[in-house]
Amino acid sequence: MPLSKNIRQRKNELRAVYKRLRVNCPKDVKEELDKKLTTQFLSLDEYKKCKTLFAFVSTPIEVDTSKIIETALKDGKRLAVPKCRDKTGLMDFYYISSTDCLKKGAFSIMEPDETLCEKVIGFSDGLCLVPGLCFDCQGYRLGFGKGYYDRFLEKFGGISVGICYSRCIEKELPKGIFDKNADILVTDKFINYTRNVSKRNDTYEP
Predict the structure, then answer these.
(1) Distance of CA 11 to CAs 54, 69, 138, 183, Å?
(2) Which of 2, 55, 57, 110 has fewest C-beta within 10 Å?
(3) Model-level pTM?
(4) Helices (H) and strands (E) in the chain, counts
(5) 70 inside domain
C-alpha cells in the first residue's frame, strides 16, 4: 500500500530540513558529536556481547562510523557492511576483514568488493547499526527515501540500533505500514530502548 500523499509530502519536507541542518553543521561541531555518538554506541552491552555487527560505511552528512568499524575489527567482531543490489531498495551484506575490502559503489558510497568478501546468508541474530537523517523517540527513522533498511529489517532477526544526532530527533515522525523502528536509539546525549530489548528505557522527550 503506497504512502498517503500527506505522509509522503511531510517526509520530503523533513528530509529537506535535516539534510540542510547536516550540511550546514560546522566540521568541528560534527566531529565532536561523532565522538560522543561513537562512545555511546560502543558503551552498549548489546555491542560488547554481539559476535556479528552489521554496520554501514557513512557518507559525509551521516554519523561517522569509521571509528566504530575500526573498533569492531579490533574487538574481533564479525563485521558486515551493505552493498546495494539494485535501485529497487534491495541490498546484500558482506563480511569485511579490513577497510581495504571496500570500493566506491552506488551513490558514491564505499561498499564491499564482492570478489574479496563473503556474502552474509544468515540474518537471525547480530547487532545492526541503522542510519537515518532523523529519528523519533520510538526509533522510527527518516532515511533518504530509498527504503533499503526498511526492507532489510523485515528479515533481520537480531537487534537494531539507530544512531542519530540529538538535534535531529523528532517527537514523532509520520510513518507508513512498512516503516520499521529500531530496537535501540543512540544519540550524542541519550539512549532509548524502544522495543524487543529487555533493558532500562532512558527516555527522552524533545
Answers:
(1) 26, 30, 16, 21
(2) 2
(3) 0.90
(4) 5, 13
(5) yes
Enumerate the β-bridge partners of residue 111: 103
- Among the listed residues 202, 88, 48, 85, the one whose alpha carbon sits nearest the alpha carbon of residue 137: 202
What are the pLDDT digits (tens) for 43-53? 999 999 999 99
Task: Assign 129 to helix, strand or coil.
Answer: strand
**Digit-coded pLDDT (tens) for 65-117:** 999 999 999 999 999 999 988 767 789 999 999 999 999 886 678 999 999 99
Contact between 156 and 180 under an 8 Å Cβ cutoff? The reply is: no
CA dihedral 93, 94, 96, 100 (to 10 degrees): -100
- What's the total number of domains in the chain? 1
Here the CATH number for the domain that contains residue 101 is 3.40.50.10420
Domain that holds residue 131: 5-193
Contact predicate 134/166, CB 8 Å: no
Closest by Cα among 74, 80, 78 to 93: 80
CA–CA separation, 162 vs 46, rounded Å?
13
Q: Which of 82, 205, 74 lies closest to 143 in space, CA to CA?
A: 82
Strands laid side by side in the 91-96 sheet: 118-119, 91-96, 78-84, 52-54, 127-130, 159-163, 184-186, 191-193
